[in-house]
Design brief:
Layout lengths: L1 H30 L13 H34 L12
Helix pairs in contact: 1-2
Length: about 90
């Protein structure tokens, strides 16, 4: 099942990444009039740290929700969960 789910997971992961970037850009525009700082810019440490923290949290949230939703959809179609059954399974 993992092999069959891999292409679906990759495509939805890319879409989730794009969506997360858009959400971050809109949120940052509310917080600051300037574009978020990039890691290669000089002397933006506090603002850079804040931007990276927010961007990372948004990305993880959107990707996690999307991944779980897609897995739930695949389960409805196939009857099998594409992944571990619980967080405790290794």
């Amino acid at each position: 099942m993992k092999i069959l789910f891999a292409p679906i997971g990759i495509v939805t992961g890319l879409i989730a990444g794009i969506a997360a970037q858009k959400v971050f850009e809109r949120l940052w525009a509310i917080v600051d009039d300037e574009d978020p700082p990039a890691p290669d810019q000089r002397q933006v440490a506090p603002k850079l740290i804040a931007a990276l923290l927010v961007e990372g949290a948004i990305f993880r949230l959107v990707k996690g929700i999307t991944d779980h939703g897609v897995r739930s959809g695949v389960t409805r179609l196939t009857g099998r969960w594409p992944g571990e059954d619980s967080a405790e399974a290794s």
